[in-house]
Amino acid sequence: MKSDPRSYRLFQRAREVIPGGVNSPVRAGKAVAQDPLFIEKGDGCRIYDVEGSEYIDYVCSWGPLILGHRHPEVIKAVQDVLARGVSFGAPVDLEVELAEMIVEAVDAVEMVRMVNSGTEATMSAVRASRAYTGRDLIVKFDGCYHGHADHLLVAAGSGVATLNIPGSPGVPDAVVAHTLSLPYNDIGAFESLMKEKGDQIAAVIVEPVAGNMGMVAPEPGFLEALRRETEKCGAVLIFDEVMCGFRVAWGGAQRLYGVNADLTCFGKIVGGGMPVGAYGGKKEIMEQIAPQGPVYQAGTLSGNPLAMAAGIATLKQLQKPGFYQALEENSARLAEGLGRIAQRMGVEVTLNRVGSMMGMFFTPGPVRNFEEAKTSDTDRFAAYYRAMLEKGIYLAPSQFEAVFLSAAHETADIDTTLAAAEAVMAGL
Ligand code: PMP
């Protein structure tokens, strides 16, 4: 285990007063037997721990930092707002601006409501869907994580997968009785469920690019099947693009795959690193939300100006010509390089990638769903993780999280990472 005396002392203090010493489970590093590093600052694609050690960061705050740390335009936008105040709990122009940007960028979104986290976004989208259809059942897919609302903690990926928590204690059976979970990418299983129960289903929620069981791409025809069957049955199709929205493409996964959802959830990138979520979609569904309609959903700090400013400044950078192309080229360089090295070293891996989201599984593969993701040798991943950390490469401390690139990762940083991976794999 990498030792860092200051992080160690902070973690001991933290464990006395914060459950597990962290405010979100995977950060604790249990799955890789590595205590967390406490981070002092970030700059571009690098982060620095409290001892001053430097790392190339592939967590990017779990996805939001597509521009890297401390992008000057984002920092400036936040500072400008900060000079005027932190929060007013009254409408500000920035909320309108960000909503307009999202509506313009995502074809299927006509109206959008800002919230404070991805969890709130998916929870609210499900509520809106149930109200709209007058039905209770929701369908999700194994290994997809949609935040920690009770009714969505069924066969969830991310920390639930990492920690082997089956659902969660504290969630009443009656609440999850209305949630059905199916294997990801299994069109046949989905079609037969819809045939049997389609008229009772309020919503089908999916990560159109799954990033919470490692990284799993939708197989050709999967998203199309979800669209076709939900339309047939009058169920709402919810794309949870909290992670992949504005990451895999401008306009999100639905632009990339040409399949539109009825409701879309956002988070991460649209908040530029601030606590933000958003859900939006068809007017006839969104018009039910209070105060326009009867479906209640609110938030003291929702749409707060600091977060809106960071989100707007981030999206403006993504709109620049060539932004996604450059990110794609660097992401391909990393993934292809890792694949070549693993092959040369005789380490069996499966590399999945969509744009700047990727996952490397220690299994011959393929990895198309949660069952296949779980065939990965997690002990081997843990050894790889710790050795990479020793070499200054900061990965998410779980096999079941995605790797993210930012625009601040340059060719030289990727080559440094590949050199580290080569040395590490030689010793695996
Ligand atoms: N949906 C997806 C696809 C996510 O990846 C996450 C978080 N990683 C969430 C929802 C929940 O978002 P938050 O952690 O902001 O509540």
UniProtKB/TrEMBL annotation:
Its cofactor is pyridoxal 5'-phosphate. GO terms for cellular component: cytoplasm. Signal peptide: none annotated. The keyword Lipoprotein does not apply. Pfam families: Aminotran_3. It is an enzyme of class 5 (isomerase). GO terms for biological process: protoporphyrinogen IX biosynthetic process. Pathway: Porphyrin-containing compound metabolism; protoporphyrin-IX biosynthesis; 5-aminolevulinate from L-glutamyl-tRNA(Glu): step 2/2. Homodimer. PROSITE patterns: AA_TRANSFER_CLASS_3. GO terms for molecular function: glutamate-1-semialdehyde 2,1-aminomutase activity; pyridoxal phosphate binding; transaminase activity. It is found in: Cytoplasm. The modification N6-(pyridoxal phosphate)lysine is found at residue 268. Its EC number is 5.4.3.8. Belongs to the class-III pyridoxal-phosphate-dependent aminotransferase family. HemL subfamily. It comes from the Bacteria. This is Glutamate-1-semialdehyde 2,1-aminomutase. The gene is hemL. Keywords: Cytoplasm, Isomerase, Porphyrin biosynthesis, Pyridoxal phosphate. It catalyses: (S)-4-amino-5-oxopentanoate = 5-aminolevulinate. SUPFAM superfamilies: PLP-dependent transferases.
